[in-house]
Amino acid sequence: MALPLLLASSGELLSERAGVLNLSVEGMMLTGAFAGAVGADASGSAAVGVLTAVVAGLLFAALQALLSITLRADQIVTGITANALALGATTYGARLVFGDGAGAKTLPGLDPLAVPLLHEIPVLGPALFEQTLLGYLAFALALALALAFSRRRTAGLAVDAVGEDALSADRSGLPVTAIRYGTVLLTGVTSALAGAHLALSEVHAFSDNITGGIGYLAVVAVIAGRWRAWPTLLACLVFGLAQSLQFAAPALGLHLSAPLLVALPYVFALLAVSGLVGRSRAPSGLTVPFVRAS
């Protein structure tokens, strides 16, 4: 349950550290899930579906970057509007492509691949080493981004400089606009892969609003993680655990209210951003448009 969060938050972490808030992660995920489902259904190949999802995520992110960075539109308003547009467009598109029984149609999907010996480790083995290719990609991508963009490396320092003070970064020769565009496009790719994971790895189907607010949780995970890679990973695991309880609790003999279990991840999210888990400081230039000094 944490894997889609981990994928989406990996790109969003860098984007926010560069000064761009993508509340449209939910819409990117939803678009990626729909595009992946259409691609897989039309071609009969889950791999083609994943590639289709990536292309759709890039196009969505390019539009978001154009509005937020070039046109300097309000990042919060554009993000919420983009999510609403994605929900309406994918719901309508599913009716056109799959008919009224969109959620009932089984799509070509990705099957779990067990790592020999490692998947036999008690508890952790099945959780970590019986994933689909997208699942393993989520782990690898999160690790690669954490290492490549750590604050001790040049790439991480450049991203942080743009997010803290874009004007000073521009005067020092950093391509502020290019860095911000790059991080938003990366968010589009990771979010689309997260959506494709939901549709092609978990359920092998597409249904209306299949993301169900997971994109917002990915944004909150970045905030709860204080804009750092490893704490963000931990936040994704906590939110994933909270989500899984609605399915695991009955099997464990825990008779808890179903609506409470559904709401539990968002309760954790509220606690995370309220400051009860520790204060954090957002990048100074987050949501601040970059205007080059004359």
UniProtKB/TrEMBL annotation:
GO terms for molecular function: transmembrane transporter activity. Keywords: Cell membrane, Membrane, Sugar transport, Transmembrane, Transmembrane helix, Transport. It is a multi-pass membrane protein. The chain crosses the membrane at residues 46-69, 76-98, 133-150, 181-200, 206-225, 232-252, 258-277. It is found in: Cell membrane. One of its GO terms (cellular component) is plasma membrane. InterPro entries: ABC_transp_permease (IPR001851). Pfam families: BPD_transp_2. This is Simple sugar transport system permease protein. It comes from Streptomyces indicus. The lineage of its organism: Bacteria, Bacillati, Actinomycetota, Actinomycetes, Kitasatosporales.
